[in-house]
């Protein structure tokens, strides 16, 4: 292959490196009104009165909007970027009189510059009726205090939601008699695991600008992963037709799932629609930390039963998820905690998976890379590591006995067949990469320091089966180059390049011959968006189908020009010739010009793809840590990982995806933590308090690939984006256990906790 499985440089690399204006704020109109949000200081309150009279007199202030400007009885909406009908409930108003977390919107202020807007915000007088909040997600279900008592709350899908019980979702599923199986097991691991909420912490904060065009339509330029869903979100929030809205995505400075929610788009859209003037809203880092869309806090109760030889016979999982004040992605993230962890153990005779998602008066959660699988895999993989220790078995050996293999039916993965899998080879590769036999479990370095290793496995998906839709448009231009128009969002992942490689492979041309454009709701064909690890597998397949169809059209027109049958045409990417007589030929450029004059063969094609399958990528990871028993400090000195993502379309881009995901997973395991004080105030409002790991904080990260071939993906490809974050959590937790003999069932594992645990064992 000339283009696929080749390490091409990202198409936009040079423009980004030299600082060309490509991001939202670079492209926003110069005369934008500055929009800022006055936020609630209370986790649960009713706005009794709000006085904006003095604030409106500040020079430069254009408008101040409050709950009085929003129909409180109108249909609510969701900010979740999901296919309609959304599983997330419709539980928001643009401005609600009832504020539900510290940071909820009380007023929208728009003015000529930052200075006047900030001055006006200080002059707004608000009187609150402060209500008792629900701050403990363990007590939220059936609590007499309701986060959403309103009657216009709505759930569009049967996800077990009931706002009068503080339930955002409930589900139960299983196979076999799990209670009987566990009762008959030689060993049962029974623990509760807790993962805190954590932030995506992308480089570019949430931001959106809006303006009216010459047709009187609302144009939205937003740093988003979901242009088409954002259009629906805004239309529903403002109660205007979707036909009056256009959403455009510039370059995105990272998303990691946070921008699968329309966090910033609604408010400047409201301002521009009301004033007809351009506006922009840029979240501060503090707002991005305290009023955004973090990972769901989850608690997982795992019961895992096995024989004394180490064969896993049954897994029982209950997940309690904290969606916070609003339900974005609550019903969907929780499912992955079980459906992307239990299926790894293909020999299990029975499983049960029950979940509850509850409302609380904390910041609303949302999508984050891994999307619930991260939390569930920490719990299940940690339980398997504990099982291995209890049976005095090597963690690699116990997994080799139990893993799902290619061709297996996976009852806990919706009964799907495992169509491609190199998990066994990934295990062997990582075992050798980390030099496991010589390092497991621990080595004493002297001076109170030890080095220890731990490992874990992971699986994810490739798009949402039977739901996600990817589309692509390809056309030949008059000099024989191609335009590829997509609705997927490149957020730094390099999907513009990856999708172009797929098209170039089919069309037998150079990568530079493919010009990529996206995403714009007025121009791009419909695409669900860049989330759920769908872009390469789903949209990539649409691109492959589109390129094949366009190639056929090129050959059809070429046959007319060569006065032969279409079946006789040979196309090498540059020229078309007659198979029996290669001297008879025309160039692609000539064919392109011909399509524009006197011919009726269109050289523009649009194709759409959806898949009934979501073939999982697999991953194995092993961490080597250095732990100081006196201080509790942990350093990851080496992390070895191996990924089965099918055929890597671009090995360089897949590798950096994996390295970045591993770094995020390390942060979640050791440092990242969202906490609240007794008043419901978030404590970590900057990177001074919220510690994300930098590259210098760790030693080596090494990533290799063991490729299976997925027959339903483009050129055998599966996904890569999400699976890569999942293995560090159980691997590091087990390495800490091997180092000090104490297991931790809650993340992050802090130096203080480690030092105290060491002291207790002395």
What distinguishing features does this structure have?
762 residues; alpha+beta; six-stranded mixed beta sheet; Aldehyde Oxidoreductase, domain 4; single chain; Aldehyde Oxidoreductase, domain 3; 25% strand; globular; 3 domains
Describe this structure as you would to a colleague:
The chain has 762 residues and is of the alpha+beta class. It folds into three domains: 194 residues, Aldehyde Oxidoreductase, domain 3; 313 residues, Aldehyde Oxidoreductase, domain 4, CATH 3.30.365.10; 146 residues, 2-Layer Sandwich (Aldehyde Oxidoreductase, domain 4). 26% of the residues lie in helices and 25% in strands. The protein is built from 19 helices and 30 strands. The strands form seven sheets. A seven-stranded mixed β-sheet has the order 3-5-1-12-9-10-11, with helices on both faces. β23 and β24 form a beta hairpin. α6 packs across α7 and α10 runs parallel beside α18. It starts with 12 loop residues before the first helix and ends with a helix. The model has no long low-confidence stretch (mean pLDDT 97).
Main sheet properties:
7 strands, mixed
Low-confidence regions: none
CATH superfamily of the largest domain: Aldehyde oxidase/xanthine dehydrogenase, molybdopterin binding domain
- State the CATH architecture of the largest domain: 2-Layer Sandwich
Strand content: 15-25%
Helical content class? 25-40%
CATH class bucket of the largest domain: Alpha Beta
Secondary structure layout:
Blueprint (H helix, E strand, L loop, with lengths): L12 H5 L6 H4 L5 E7 L5 E7 L1 H4 L4 E5 L32 E2 L5 E7 L2 H10 L1 E6 L36 E9 L2 H6 L3 E9 L11 E6 L5 E5 L4 H12 L6 E4 L17 H10 L3 E4 L2 H6 L6 E10 L5 E13 L5 H10 L10 E10 L13 H18 L4 H8 L6 E2 L5 E2 L5 H11 L2 H4 L2 E5 L2 E11 L10 E7 L5 E5 L8 H13 L6 E4 L17 H28 L6 E3 L3 E4 L2 E7 H7 L9 E6 L8 E11 L5 E11 L6 H20 L29 E6 L22 H13 L5 E2 L3 H11 L1
Parallel strand pairs: 1-12, 8-30, 10-11, 14-15, 21-22, 28-29
Antiparallel strand pairs: 1-5, 2-4, 2-6, 3-5, 7-15, 8-13, 9-10, 9-12, 13-14, 16-17, 18-19, 19-27, 20-21, 20-26, 23-24, 24-25, 27-28
Helix pairs in contact: 6-7, 9-10, 10-18, 14-15, 15-16, 17-18
């Amino acid at each position: 292959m000339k283009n696929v499985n080749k390490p091409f440089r990202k198409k936009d690399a040079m423009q980004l490196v030299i600082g060309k204006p490509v991001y939202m704020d670079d492209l926003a109109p110069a005369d934008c009104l500055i929009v800022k949000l006055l936020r609630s200081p209370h986790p649960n309150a009713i706005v009794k009165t709000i006085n904006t009279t003095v604030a409106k007199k500040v020079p430069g202030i254009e408008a101040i909007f409050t709950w009085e400007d929003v129909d409180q009885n109108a249909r609510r909406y969701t900010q979740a970027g999901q296919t309609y009908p959304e599983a997330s409930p419709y539980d928001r108003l643009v401005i609600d009189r009832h504020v539900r977390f510290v940071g909820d919107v009380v007023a929208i202020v728009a003015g000529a510059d930052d200075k006047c807007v900030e001055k006006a915000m200080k002059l707004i007088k608000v009187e609150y009726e402060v209500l008792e909040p629900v701050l403990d997600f363990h007590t939220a279900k059936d609590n007499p205090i309701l986060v959403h008592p309103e009657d216009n709350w709505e759930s569009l899908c049967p996800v077990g939601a009931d706002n009068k019980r503080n339930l955002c979702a409930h589900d139960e599923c299983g196979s076999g008699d799990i209670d009987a199986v566990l009762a008959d097991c030689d060993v049962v691991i029974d623990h509760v695991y807790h993962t805190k909420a954590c932030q995506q912490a992308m480089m570019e904060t949430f931001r959106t600008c809006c303006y009216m065009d010459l047709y009187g339509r609302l144009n939205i330029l937003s740093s988003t992963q979901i242009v088409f869903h954002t259009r629906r979100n805004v239309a529903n929030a403002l109660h205007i037709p979707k036909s009056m809205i256009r959403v455009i995505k510039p370059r995105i400075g990272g998303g990691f799932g946070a921008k699968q929610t329309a966090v910033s788009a609604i408010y400047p859209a409201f301002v521009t629609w009301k004033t007809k003037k351009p506006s922009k809203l840029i979240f501060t880092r503090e707002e991005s930390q305290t009023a955004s869309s973090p990972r769901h806090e989850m608690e997982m109760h795992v019961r895992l039963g096995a024989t004394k030889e180490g064969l896993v016979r049954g897994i029982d999982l209950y997940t309690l998820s904290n969606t916070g004040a609003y339900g974005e992605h609550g019903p969907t993230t929780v499912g992955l905690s079980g459906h992307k962890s239990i299926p790894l153990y293909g020999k299990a005779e029975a499983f049960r998976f029950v979940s509850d998602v509850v409302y609380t008066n904390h910041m609303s959660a949302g999508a984050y890379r891994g999307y619930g699988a991260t939390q569930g895999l920490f719990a299940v993989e940690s339980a398997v590591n504990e099982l291995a220790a209890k049976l005095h078995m090597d963690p690699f050996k116990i997994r080799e006995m139990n893993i799902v293999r290619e061709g297996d039916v996976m009852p806990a993965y919706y009964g799907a067949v495992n169509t491609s899998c190199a998990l066994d080879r990934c295990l062997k590769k990582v075992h050798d990469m980390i030099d496991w036999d010589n390092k497991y479990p621990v080595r004493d370095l002297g001076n109170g320091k030890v080095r220890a290793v731990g490992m874990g496995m992971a699986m994810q998906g490739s798009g949402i089966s039977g739901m996600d839709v990817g589309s692509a448009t390809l056309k030949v231009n008059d000099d024989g180059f191609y335009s590829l128009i997509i609705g997927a969002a490149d957020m730094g992942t390099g999907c513009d390049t990856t999708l172009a490689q797929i098209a170039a492979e089919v069309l037998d041309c150079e990568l530079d011959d493919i010009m990529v454009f996206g995403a714009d709701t007025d121009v791009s064909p419909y695409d669900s968006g860049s989330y759920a690890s769908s872009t390469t597998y789903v949209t990539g397949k649409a691109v492959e189908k589109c390129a094949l169809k366009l190639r056929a059209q090129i050959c059809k027109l070429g046959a007319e020009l060569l006065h032969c049958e279409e079946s006789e045409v040979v196309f090498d990417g540059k020229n078309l010739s007659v198979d029996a007589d290669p001297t008879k030929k025309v160039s692609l450029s000539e064919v392109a010009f011909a399509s524009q004059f006197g011919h009726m063969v269109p050289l523009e094609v649009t194709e759409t793809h959806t898949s009934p399958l979501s073939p999982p990528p697999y991953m194995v990871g092993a961490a080597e840590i250095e732990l100081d028993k006196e201080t509790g400090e942990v350093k990851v000195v080496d992390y070895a990982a191996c990924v089965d993502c099918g055929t890597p379309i671009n090995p360089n881009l897949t590798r950096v995806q994996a390295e970045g995901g591993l770094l995020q997973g390390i942060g979640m395991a050791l440092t990242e933590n969202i906490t609240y004080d007794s008043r419901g105030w978030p404590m970590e409002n900057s990177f001074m308090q919220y510690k994300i790991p930098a590259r210098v904080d760790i030693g080596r990260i090494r990533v290799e690939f063991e490729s299976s071939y997925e027959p339903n993906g483009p050129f055998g490809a599966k996904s890569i984006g999400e699976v890569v974050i999942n293995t560090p959590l159980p691997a590091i937790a087990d390495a800490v256990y091997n180092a000090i003999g104490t297991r931790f069932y809650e993340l992050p594992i802090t130096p203080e906790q480690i030092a105290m645990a060491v002291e207790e064992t002395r």
